[in-house]
Amino acid sequence: MKTYLALISAAVLGLAACSQEASKPAETATPAAKTSASSVETTASTAEPASVAVADTACSTVVESDDAMKFNVAEINISKACPQFSITLKHMGKMPKAAMGHNIVITKAEDVDAVVKESAAAGVDNEFVKADDSRVIAHSSLIGGGEETTFTVDTGKFAAGNQYEFFCSFPGHVAMMRGKVNLTE
Ligand code: ZN
Question: Among 11, 47, 75, 139, which one is least packed by beta carbons within 10 Å?
Fold first, then answer.
């Protein structure tokens, strides 16, 4: 009796082995399917036109400021290829304009000290920028916590060979809020 059962179970195992082998050829179809799928993806990504989005962001930038009297960047890169360059200033803090107001003023590096003094005298009603100051290449509005403002810079006003800087002209802020303007082609 025991021998008979052993034969049956051997036959069952044999059948199981056969059915496993039979299922193998089906698996070979999967790698082939994956290969064709990935070749389709490659074709799609090389055909993507990304140049439009890149050109758009190159003519604008965003600068953040806060209640700690800081800009989040030490330098602003401005492309001279853009006739008009747009800068958005955001105030991420909560303090009001009268206590912690910020703006961005752009002048030649050698003009910063004089412009800062005269801007303070212009007062908060003039957003700390002297009216019709020819030394000011461009400037934003003065904003308080939670606000943002955008201004455009006429890049034709930048002369070759000069160093330019940006700063906040709110009295006392220039010591902490000042950086370089880099002109790129
Ligand atoms: Zn400021």
Answer: 47
**Range of weakest confidence among 27-41, 43-57, 83-97, 145-159:** 27-41
Q: 172 C-alpha vs ligand 1 centroid, how far in Å?
A: 8
97-144 pLDDT, tens per residue?
A: 999 999 999 999 999 999 999 999 999 999 999 999 999 999 999 999
Residue owning tokens 């050829």: 25
- CA of 115 from ligand 1 middle (Å) equals 15
* Helix extents (H) in 28-111: 29-46, 51-58, 97-100
The pair of three-digit structure tokens given for residue 170, joined into one six-digit string: 């709110």
How many CB atoms within 10 Å of residue 97?
A: 18
Q: What is the Cα 78 distance to its own chain's centre? A: 14
Strand ordering across the sheet containing 164-167: 75-79, 178-184, 164-167, 105-108, 138-139
Residue (of 185, 159, 182, 177) closest to 80 by Cα position: 185
Band (pLDDT 50/70/90 cuts) for residue 185 is: confident
% of the chain with per-residue pLDDT over 70: 69
